[in-house]
Amino acid sequence: MSDLPHGVSIGLEQHGNHFFLTLRARGKLTHEDYKTMVPMLNSALAGVENPKIDCLMDASELEGWEPRAAWDDLKLGLSHGRDFNRIAVISDKRWMKIASKVGSWFIGGEYKVFDSEEDAMAWLLGEK
Fold first, then answer.
1. Which residues does residue 113 pair with via DSSP β-bridges, in sequence order?
2. Which of 27, 38, 44, 78 has its CA 20 to 30 A from that of 68?
3. Has residue 107 been placed in a domain?
4. Helices 31-45/67-80 angle, 10° precision
5. In the sheet that 110-114 helps form, which strands lie side by side, from edge to edge?
């Protein structure tokens, strides 16, 4: 495990069966990061019929995933992919734009990468 700063900050708001999830990822995500994040999401969605999630992910400081964390990310997509309505990712990294195309295969909703938070939020709110 790396001693460099890494991790994910999580925010979750719920209005009935609609959720707004905010994530800010930094450094290289680890399995431990997913052990924190996934139970929180699972707990919030438990017992909610037909949840719909809009997600804003700030990946501007994301450097990638450790192999086990990449597997955790895939499992998260497989278990909750149909629950996602829209995912807006903030990143100017070319590799993140390519990764988003692969990630979109595992979700039922839309997935887009933006250069700014303003554009990402406008798209999530249906203003663009």
1. 89
2. 44
3. yes
4. 10
5. 7-15, 18-29, 52-65, 84-90, 110-114
CA distances for 116 relative to 17, 58, 60, 111, 113, angstroms: 28, 9, 9, 15, 9
Closest among 82, 71, 91, 90 to 110, alpha carbons compared:
82
In a domain, 16, yes or no: no
Domain span at residue 65? 28-124
Q: How many CB atoms lie within 10 A of CB 13?
A: 11
Of the CA atoms within 13 Å of residue 122, those in its CB half-sphere come to 8
Q: Please return the burial class of 33, using the count of CB atoms within 10 Å of its CB with bins 0-12, 13-18 and 19+.
A: buried
Q: What Cα–Cα distance (Å) separates residue 88 from each residue in 9, 72, 124?
A: 16, 20, 7
Residues whose CB falls within 8 Å of the CB of residue 113, separated by 6 or more in sequence, listed in order: 88, 89, 90, 91, 96, 97, 100
Domain count, the chain: 1
Question: What pTM does this model have?
Answer: 0.83
Residue 75 lies in a domain: yes
What whole-number percentage of the chain has pLDDT above 70? 89
CA 124 to chain centre: 13
